[in-house]
Amino acid sequence: MISLSKAQSTVMSLVEPGAEIELDTASSLGHYLSRGLVAQIDVPPFDNSAMDGYALRSEDLSQVPRDFDVVGLRLAGRLSGRDQRLSINSGQAVRIMTGAPIPVGADCVCMVEQAMTSQDANRVTILKSLRPGENVRKQGDDLARGTTLAGPGDRLSPGLVALLVSAGCPRVTVFSHPRVGVLSTGSELVELPPGSSGQVQLGAGEIFDSNRPMIMGLLGELGLSPDDIGHVRDDLDEVIGRINQLRETYDVVVMSGGVSVGDADMVKAAISKLCGNSGYSMQVAIRPAKPLAFGSIQDDDGKTTLLFGLPGNPVSAAVSFELFVRPAILKSCGARQPFRNSLRARFAEALASPKDGKDHFIRVQLSHLDDGSWVARPSDKQGSHQLSGLGFCDGLAICPGDSNEEVINEADILVTNPRVLG
User: How far apart, in whole angstroms, are the C-alpha atoms of residue 65 and residue 419?
Assistant: First the structure.
């Protein structure tokens, strides 16, 4: 067996970020920047009103209430030449809407709730004294032109996309997403017919293929659009033939099943034959997900395809995806930090230390207490075939297999359910 860290470093050593491409900023959601960006303009680009009200001079409000002549109306939006010249003198005010530019001569805004407007709207009584700059958003108070906004490896979230657009960045240079195909292997697998109503009958020795939709969903959570490429029987020639077809189209092929030590485990044999010295069949010191097959094939034209062979047991496939496929995909996408962060939690009840030399990944549900701490409760069923323990888990508790302690009271948790963190 090899350690988890050694297995991860081996996998990651064969992964490179994708090609650089340019996208419209508004269409770049979920990609990772390959180049940094700076603000092209001040944000906001001009002094503007923080609310609906009246723009006026603060020095006119030494005594209140006071009446003012309303000499204009300023709305948010592009200003005409005449509107741009709008200004006020002592004793004058301009009716102004949120986001509209502050008129020349004004230095504050009185909110409409603190003013009384005459019936003809030509006069206004201001009821409150104001400081210079009150209710005014100053030019550049969010960002000054030239401010660094984001760097290589930053993910383009909805908030970052909005920030870049507001700062006048119309295009971004990002790493391309890999084209990923998902393939199941196993002569026992049956696809659940889509749109079927009522009970679907299985033949003797058959099971439904749950790994493929699970892996498709896990890839979708990373912002990818993987292709479902079906399943193949436990036949070495058929597995090799399908991989050779897929490598022409896909940058990554994720397979499940056929990587252990059984007579019908053909995926590891296929990866070994196709990848040569760039293929690996590992027994990793973890539980579940001990077996892993991985390799890299390069075509004559230089195109590289990564092959992942995950265990067939569904929980093992999910854990193996979390530990190996997910970080590899994120590195390929250009992420600065491809590995998931963890949080510390105490167990509701202490667990026996594994003491078998394997790091155990325990499916847990998490509770956040008022004092800010976390409590982890292991799922009832922890077998590598038992999806009932995976379906509602919030994360994986890491229990080291080399601990000297008899029991484990707390552990680092890989949070796999993003809703837990809000």
Answer: 51
What topology does CATH give the domain 4-19+177-195+202-333? Molybdenum Cofactor Biosythetic Enzyme; Chain A (3.40.980)
pLDDT at residue number 396: 97
pLDDT, average across residues 86-114 = 97
How far is it, in rounded angstroms, from Cα 168 to Cα 358? 52
What rounded mean pLDDT belongs to the chain? 94
422: Cβ contacts below 8 Å, ≥ 6 apart: none
- Tell me which residue of 315, 306, 407, 301 sits closest to 352, measured CA to CA: 407
- What is the DSSP annotation of 5-41? HHHHHHHHHT-----EEEEEGGG-TT-BBSS-EE-SS
Mind listing the pLDDT tens digit for each residue in 352-398?
A: 999 899 999 999 999 999 999 999 999 988 889 888 889 889 999 99
Q: pLDDT (tens digit, 9 = 90+) per residue, 248-267? A: 999 999 999 989 877 778 99
Q: Name the class of domain 342-421.
A: mainly beta
Longest dimension (CA), the chain: 93
Give yes or no for a cis peptide into 132 (omega within 30° of 0): no
Taking each continuous run of H as one helix and of E as one strand, the counts in the chain are: 8, 26
Residue 244 has pLDDT above 70, yes or no: yes
Rounded to an integer, what distance in angstroms lies between the CA atom of residue 115 and that of residue 137?
A: 20
Sheet architecture: strand order including 304-310: 227-232, 180-185, 252-256, 304-310, 291-298, 279-283
Q: Which fold has domain 48-137?
A: Molybdopterin biosynthesis moeA protein; domain 3 (2.170.190)
**Contact criterion met (CB below 8 Å) for 377 and 364:** yes
Asked if the domains at 20-43+141-175 and 48-137 fall in one CATH topology, the answer is no
For the segment 169-205, what is each residue's pLDDT rounded down to a tens digit? Answer: 999 999 999 999 999 999 999 988 777 766 788 889 9
The domains of the chain are located at 4-19+177-195+202-333, 20-43+141-175, 48-137, 342-421
Taking each helix axis from N to C end, the angle separating 267-275 and 236-246, rounded to the nearest 10 degrees, works out to 50
* Distance set, CA 197 to CA 158, 194, 214, 337 (Å): 38, 9, 21, 44
Query: Could you give the CA distance from residue 291 to residue 270 in angstroms, rounded to a whole number?
Result: 15
Cβ–Cβ under 8 Å, residues 402 and 381: no
Question: Facing residues of 234 across strands?
Answer: none
